[in-house]
């Protein structure tokens, strides 16, 4: 466990309903949440460099055309 690195992120915004921003089976995460999470090391490597790539990757995971 000594070799593991942990990162925490604080997500802030003006939207009072956080659930509107999260990813679900029916909707990808919001663009504002994507931009905030893009500051986390490795996030864009796993999810896409742009919001458009992120949504396309989400569609592939959910097998949506």
Task: Describe the structure concisely for a colleague.
This protein has 65 residues and is mostly helical. The protein has three helices and no strands.
Number of H/I helices: 3
Unreliable stretches (pLDDT < 50, length at least 5) are none
Number of strands: 0
Helix content estimate: 25-40%
Order of helices and strands: HHH
Mean pLDDT across the residues is 82
Shape: globular
Structural class: mainly alpha
The portion of residues forming beta strands comes to under 5%
Termini Cα gap: 40 Å
What is the CA-atom radius of gyration, in angstroms? 13 Å
Main pleated sheet: none
How is the topology of this model organized?
Layout: H1 31-37, H2 43-47, H3 51-62
Would you write up a description of this structure?
The model has no long low-confidence stretch (mean pLDDT 82). With 65 residues, the protein is mainly α. Helix content is 37%, strand content 0%. The N and C termini lie far apart (40 Å). The longest helix has 12 residues, at 51-62. The protein has helices at 31-37, 43-47, 51-62. It has a domain at 27-62. The chain has 3 helices and no strands.
Name the features:
single chain, 65 residues, mainly alpha, 37% helix
């Amino acid at each position: 466990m000594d070799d593991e690195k942990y990162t925490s992120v604080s997500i802030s915004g003006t939207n009072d309903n956080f659930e509107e921003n999260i990813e679900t089976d029916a909707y990808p995460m919001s663009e504002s949440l994507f931009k905030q999470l893009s500051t986390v090391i490795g996030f864009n490597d796993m999810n896409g460099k742009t919001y458009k790539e992120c949504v396309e990757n989400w569609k592939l995971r959910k097998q949506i055309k």
